[in-house]
Design a protein that fits this description.
Chain A is of the alpha/beta class. Chain A is built from 8 helices and 15 strands. The longest helix of chain A is centred in the first third of the chain and has 18 residues. Chain B contains 6 helices and no strands. In chain B, α3 packs antiparallel against α4 and α3 runs antiparallel to α6. Chain B starts with a helix and ends with a helix. Classes of the chains: A alpha/beta, B mainly alpha. The interface between A and B is medium-sized, with 19 and 20 residues.
């Protein structure tokens, strides 16, 4: 998982890097941090990056493009990355609210303040990093939960559909369900499928069209329930933004 | 010099060691890394302040704002307060205050640098 830190102060970059490393160790998160001394530099890197950051620390008070302006540019481009602003004054609180910032870190801050701010985005970070381990062709393989599009029962195993490939895992549907039980975006669809709502492209009442262009049939008896649950998922995720 | 000696020296010089160590996650090694950065940035930042204080623009505001924070993090509270006064004056367009107090700001900053360099 990638995290960007953008601050025109080298010592603040170092501090956040230090705190993030400690936090990642404590929370067992795999993170990769990239640092930027200006918003312009960060925006250019963001545009070019194949893997976009999950979290962005943005200093507000910077020369040329300030943090609020940078956040507005990202939001305008449809980027929904979590943003934590770092600042020593609250005068931009309203603007930060308007760009859907996830929180503020008020300078000077210590590690406890940092952890408190991180608690606002920790669910998302955990989801980004969570993996499941399944056996594929006699080897154990880890999957990032967020990369699973849907799973389909296949004789005594399960086909795990990702955007780039399909993997046959030696696990039962029940076993997989158990591993995904805490994941809010995963839902059992009939006996044969577990789908990740995050990958649904369209729902027409009878089927889910997934983002990998595969179609999943919805059994008649649960169509109404599925429609409600999917609607609820969309509503909750819209609210988060 | 042991870690304890270093901290005692800084405390005697008026540095708020307790706060600084809290911000440095109670790590002397990390605190010293932050001091190194602060000292390295002194010359280039002083030059930019000198180039902009007579006609304080956005750059002056951003500089004193940043120096306020980095000084505060290291426990140089009095200097941080003085940078804050300059930040407020720059935001309010109070050029007279900046012109009048600029020399004493530089003097205090130089002193703080000396304290950290001696350590």
């Amino acid at each position: 998982m990638k995290i960007y830190i953008c601050d025109d102060s080298s010592s603040d970059l170092l501090r956040l890097q230090h705190y993030l490393k400690k936090y990642a160790q404590e929370e067992n998160l795999m993170i990769e941090v990239e640092e930027f001394l200006s918003a312009k530099e960060m925006l250019l890197a963001h545009n070019a990056a194949k893997e976009k950051p999950t979290l962005l620390f943005l200093d507000i008070y910077m020369n040329q493009i300030d943090g609020i302006e940078a956040a507005k540019k990202l939001r305008k481009a449809g980027i929904k990355t979590s943003i934590l602003f770092t600042t020593s004054s609250m005068e931009h609180a309203m603007e930060a609210f308007q760009v859907h910032a996830d929180g503020y870190l008020h300078k000077p801050f210590d590690y406890e303040d940092f952890k408190h701010a991180m608690s606002k985005v920790s669910d998302q970070l955990q989801t980004e990093c969570k993996t499941i381990e399944v056996r594929i062709e006699r080897m154990n393989r880890k999957f990032k939960v967020r990369d699973i599009c849907f799973a389909e029962s296949d004789n005594h195993g399960v086909l795990i559909h990702c955007m780039d490939n399909v993997y046959r895992a030696n696990i039962t549907m029940e076993g997989l369900k158990e591993q995904l039980t805490d994941e809010a975006s995963f839902l059992t669809c009939g006996r044969s499928y577990i789908i990740n709502f995050a990958y649904v492209q369209e729902m027409d009442g009878e089927t889910f069209l997934m983002k990998n262009n595969e179609t999943i049939p919805i059994p008649v008896r649960i169509r109404k329930q599925m429609k409600e649950l999917y609607g609820q998922y969309l509503h909750e995720n819209e609210e988060k933004r | 010099m042991t870690e304890r000696d270093k901290l005692e020296y800084l405390e005697k010089q008026g540095i708020n060691v307790k706060a600084a160590m809290r911000f440095a996650d109670d790590s002397m090694e990390f605190y010293e890394q932050l001091i190194d950065i602060y000292l390295k940035e002194y010359e280039p930042k002083r030059e930019r302040l000198q180039a902009t204080y007579q006609n304080p623009d956005d750059e002056y505001k951003v500089l004193v704002h940043g120096l306020k924070n980095s000084s505060r993090y290291l426990g140089a509270d009095e200097l941080a307060d003085l940078f804050f006064e300059h930040e407020k004056a720059a935001k309010a367009g109070n050029v007279a205050y900046i012109l009048k107090e600029f020399a004493s700001l530089l003097e205090m900053w130089e002193n703080v640098n000396q304290i950290f360099s001696n350590n």
